[in-house]
Design a protein that fits this description.
By secondary structure, the chain is of the alpha/beta class. Helices cover 22% and strands 20% of the residues.
């Protein structure tokens, strides 16, 4: 089934192909300029640091819905081994197998394609099993540090958590920005809190996955109009799941990643940040969210930290 005309109309309005040149591989990260970073650093007042990643563990957030996206399998490959003879310094080493999008992660621009294309109009066929992502692999997103803005949609509605069938709309984002007395501006990294992470933290990863609130197909235009550099939230699928439009699966992925060239992140734990922002009465901060530079990767684990 082909994508509907309404999808293609939105795609035209948010398309950034060629905006930073035909050879560009990082999309909206171009909006994170030196000036943006200097202004982000200036938001730090107390030095309070809030970690935003879930623990990487074998019984993690993945339910098996996506084949091969396995939770981390962590094994010890040597334990207190005296490599240079008895009585010498001993070392322990470990190894891990995991899906790169298993826990808190960034999706690379190559994570989604539609109509045979990835970001900047390149062929989706440039992603291969052996060569991985030839263009726009996650290793090209080297410097993800900017001003972070928490749009606490749940708190703005006086809710602990949005209902599972709630599609976060542009109006919701406006309401959350007003609630936090913050203006989203060019180069910002926006974090959207639904409260859904509470379900996972309570031990119900299947309930966390489905049904889940998430971003509406209408939100990419909101982010595009404000020149947002990247967006992350506290759900497994990022967009509402099941989808708001029957049989239109992952349209927000396609609009954000393919058309706009905007990184998106999932499984971010925004609960402590919600409390911290409420206590300090400000919703903007310095955000460090550097991807692990897996060459050719279509995603990567990330351990982001908000610094207030």
């Amino acid at each position: 089934m082909s994508l509907p005309a309404a999808f293609h109309e939105i795609a035209k309005r948010v398309n950034n192909w060629g905006r930073w040149g035909q050879d560009d591989e990082i999309g909206t990260l171009n909006l994170v300029t030196d000036e943006v970073v200097r202004e982000a650093v200036a938001t730090v007042r107390t030095g309070r640091r809030v970690p935003l990643a879930v623990d990487l563990k074998q019984d993690g957030v993945q339910t098996g819905m996506i084949p091969g996206r396995v939770n981390p399998l962590h094994v010890m490959v040597q334990v207190n081994q005296e490599l240079f003879g008895p009585g010498t310094v001993a070392t322990s080493d470990d190894a891990v197998t995991l899906g790169l999008q298993a826990g808190t992660h960034w999706d690379a621009l190559t994570h989604a394609s539609h109509s045979g294309r990835i970001y900047n109009g390149r062929p989706a066929g440039t992603i291969t099993a052996h060569g991985r992502a030839e263009f726009s692999g996650i290793h090209t997103a080297r410097q993800v540090v900017s001003r972070g803005v928490l749009l606490d949609v749940a708190a703005a509605k006086s809710l602990d958590r949005l209902p599972g069938d709630h599609a976060v709309t542009p109006e919701d984002l406006d309401e959350a920005a007003e609630f936090g007395r913050v203006t989203v501006r060019s180069g910002d990294i926006v974090l959207v809190r639904t409260g859904q992470m509470q379900v996972y933290l309570a031990g119900d990863k299947h309930g966390y996955a489905f049904p889940s609130p998430g971003l509406s197909v209408r939100t990419p235009e909101w982010f595009h109009a404000r020149d947002v550099a990247a967006v992350a939230n506290d759900t497994l699928t990022f967009e509402i799941f099941p989808p708001e439009i029957d049989d239109l699966w992952l349209p927000v992925h396609a609009l954000d990643l393919v058309e706009m060239g905007m990184l998106q992140g999932q499984n971010w734990n925004l609960e402590e940040l919600s409390t911290a922002c409420a206590q300090e009465r400000r919703y903007a901060f310095l955000l460090s969210a550097m991807p692990e530079p897996f060459v050719g990767g279509t995603g990567t684990p990330v351990a982001p930290v908000a610094i207030l």
